[in-house]
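Appendix B. Worked example

We walk through a single record from start to finish. Start with the input: the chain for peptide-methionine (R)-S-oxide reductase, Thermostaphylospora chromogena, length 134.
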Amino acid sequence: MEKVVRSEAEWRQVLSPEEYRVLRQAGTEPPFTGEYVNTKTEGVYTCRACGAELFRSEAKFDSHCGWPSFYEPSDSDAVVLLEDRSLGMIRTEVRCARCDSHLGHVFHGEGYPTPTDDRYCINSIALRLEPEQG
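Next comes the structure step. The output line below is what the pipeline stores for this chain.
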């Protein structure tokens, strides 16, 4: 996968201010406000910044946490996981492997009835859904 590298000025030109805040400054959209929280449409979720495939609708589940949740990425190489010690806690940040944009966080061992027991808690604004053509 070819990496997408842009200057921060270039990112500001291609992203809206709110997209930039989340994707490039590791912000978080308010819970239950994102366009994909309750979406059941089948398709592929791509990175809003670079278009890389990140998640498939088959891995999306209702976690009732306020953000779209997936139990696994579409490919293990699609995302990069980093330790995040911000806000006085230790979490695992999820970033797009292609453009290094912040997507959200992943949590493990919360007891969800999914194949992986992982919850990739992803900001809707970091994603773009490409509906399945049927």
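Two observations about the output. The beta strands are 43-47, 53-56, 60-61, 69-70, 79-84, 91-96, 102-108, 118-122, 127-131. The radius of gyration is 14 Å.
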